[in-house]
Amino acid sequence: MYILSGRLRDEFLACPELVRMGEDNAGPVLLLKTTTLSAKYLVRSLRIRVAVMRVREFLLYGVLFYDGDAEEAVRWSLYEEPHEVEALRGLSTRSSVRLAVFNEVATCSTSGDCAVSTSASIGALCAGVKPYPFSPSGVDAETTEEANGRLGRLIDGTLPQSEGVFLDLLPPSEWTQINSHFITRSAASGFVSLFDDDEGGQQEALAHWLVGELAPDGIFRSPQVDERGKPRELTDILLTHRYGSILFESKALSLLSRPDLPSRERLAQQTIRHVRKAARQLAGAARNIAAGLRVTDRAGKVVDVNRDQPPHLVILIPDLTLLAVSDEVGVPFYRSLMEDRKGLLHILDPSELLRIVQAGSMIAARSQETTPMMGLDYWLMRRAEQFVKTGHPAFHVLLRFGRESGSIE
Fold first, then answer.
1. Which of 33, 195, 272, 342 would give a disulfide with 286, using CB separation of 3.0 to 4.6 Å?
2. 63: how many CB neighbours lie within 10 A of its CB?
3. Are residues 29 and 116 in the same domain?
4. Residue 230 shares a structural domain with residue 293
């Protein structure tokens, strides 16, 4: 298991997907951060490829694998530290390399030793390269555009070997299962595992882990509501604080139990059905709260829920890109749930939830009166406004503060 620290951990928390080269006592280690959904494709992949390529005076390297998309994408980084180049040189002469995979919260979810099945000399590619200058905002747009264009040529075989190569890896015969246990500030606990059969529960646990860091007044898994004397689940997760409440419905896709992994196009169709079902469930939960029905935790203790303000209604799905080409969950769908002030709808994936939690903490850190939950509440409202402007939920909102003015970009 690999535990990140320092700038590397900050980078893995800031970027939704990236790759870095490291070393341990056994040799080179590829550190890959990707979404939980993509990681499930990765552990079922028959081939993994490592790309090494020049982009002007810089050196790019990345990982390519089938993740359900017809147009395969490379998760890549530009080298910044001298040890990365040395590890890459070693990779081209070794028979194996360890691959460590990290999830949305930058914890290692699995690792394994991959055999190098076809190698290529990368010494010439590494000669004379310069480290890409570190920037908190990442790689500049011009370099990113050039890198993606050249990667496209590398994938389709039109880029000369003097400018870029692939090293082919055979996945490990067995991936190491890693269970990450967590304890929130409210003393709630749980664990996250990439290989757990209850994929919906694991996504829910990941959300619990993230939002628990904001110190809400209460955080409840599977809270109950009393309907005519019959208790039933209100929602998957309930967050309460002084000025409102947040309800979560988590919808997963149960990929690992399938004999064959479907395409992302098929997953998108299934996700839309899940979103519509979750919206109905959340609307019902919001009505029950507005009607004053008693809410309890799983032990039967009454939960104090703010009933004056419409709650935030969060649908958590594995990957927002699954909704990128659909207009079935656009503004009309959003407005239908907002009728009669039932609640404010949000459709998020774990990566976007992480960014919103980070934003809530950042806002609170710059104020003596604003709590992290108040910051989260505010940033969710800002994202809802952007939802209406954009017309679909498949976008990301990034909070930055100006050095002098403290403005939000």
1. 342
2. 24
3. yes
4. yes
